[in-house]
TrEMBL record:
This is O-antigen ligase like membrane protein. It comes from Dyadobacter soli. Keywords: Membrane, Transmembrane, Transmembrane helix. The chain crosses the membrane at residues 14-34, 46-65, 71-91, 103-120, 126-147, 197-217, 223-241, 253-270, 351-372, 384-402, 408-426.
Amino acid sequence: MNWSLFNVANNFNYLRYSVGIAMMFNGFPLIFFIRDTLGIGPASSVFTAMFFSLALLLMVPPTLFKKLYKPNTILINLGAGFLLLTLWYFFFMNHQGKPIADIGNFVFTFGFLALLLHVPNDVKDTLIQVLFLFSFFTNITLVYSILTDPNWTPGMRAAVSFANEGAQPGGNPHITARNGIITMLSALVLLGNTKHLITRLFLFFSVLFGLGVVVISLAKSSYLGLGIAFGAYFLLHFKFSDITSAIGNAFKFRNMVFIILILLAINYFLSRYGNVLNMLLGYWDIFQDRIMNVIFTSTGVRLSEEADVDYSAMGRVSGFGEFLETIYSWDIFLGRGYKNDYLDVPLLESWVNHGIFGFVFFASFNFFLFLYVIREVRRHTNPLTTFLAYFFLSMMVLLFTGGRPYDIAFWFPYSVMIRFLGIKYLDAIPRFRKITRPEPQPVSTVTT
């Protein structure tokens, strides 16, 4: 981790670009904290629009409309194709109305993607660090929010409670879990490139902090997503020789100091706050019960006497029935229309509502993105792309378990992946060979 990148005088533009991107990439937890916990601004989508507008304003470069940097061409063609197709459905095959919120989502998605194409390539070094600190700070705001919430008690899902009337009670724990995952993955990536002892201790603490947030969110999809991300790492990188080398490295003086400090800190924390460990174990028991409920709902197999119907899983099971009805009807070609049915399974909904072309665009986009992610997991090109790869693996579960195919919760991270993942001129890997490369040129230059 390079703290000098936070020197505002020397790195002002890259910092503002990075803050703007971080606000779009992972802004919802901070929006909920400012709007619902602190009570600043209207408790409605108006505040969200103001927040994202500020983020886009921070991303505007001095070279706007003069320089356009090349993204991943396959991903941007498929992604933009799907978004344009859904926009067409929004205007011409829409039986649900045209609310301002949906128009705003399209505007912010296309605006974010367009501005990313104008942001210089070198922002990647600053961006990964800003994403980490942004998510770490947001975890702190979550702790403050639940401690000051009179309705929250240990054992409940951790989330910022919404202040507007008629809102979902208890907030959105999936947003909480995603922020914890971002903290974990970005800290782990930076930890591998950091030698300073104090910074390494801070990053290690951040990993545990993020893990704790994920646990108390009780978001099953996030647990499974983390399992997939770490499973991919061990499958593609783990070797038996790594165990022996790790044991040998552990006895080096610097690493021994690091391990001892960690053990002392954990021992002090548990001795002073032993109830926290009991609370986390209680959350684990709740998670096990939820998994048993999902298995019983999906398969009818009762693996425990307490297993009961999980109504969120039941909704997805019924959604699969809607998909089968579509397959055996004329709707298979054009679909049923924009947001006509809510399946809570984005891959299936892309076909049910937008026909075979919607499914092909959306599924192909995620398929090729998955291929680039696996390549990045194998190569570890640079910290930002490595983080994006593991983050996609962690959110891949949502393609089958929650959300809609055009949700900005998908497309804001997708836009950053389109811009930075699988770009050849960013894929310099010094540990394999040293290559003298010319400075990458923009795709087009327009003189005004």
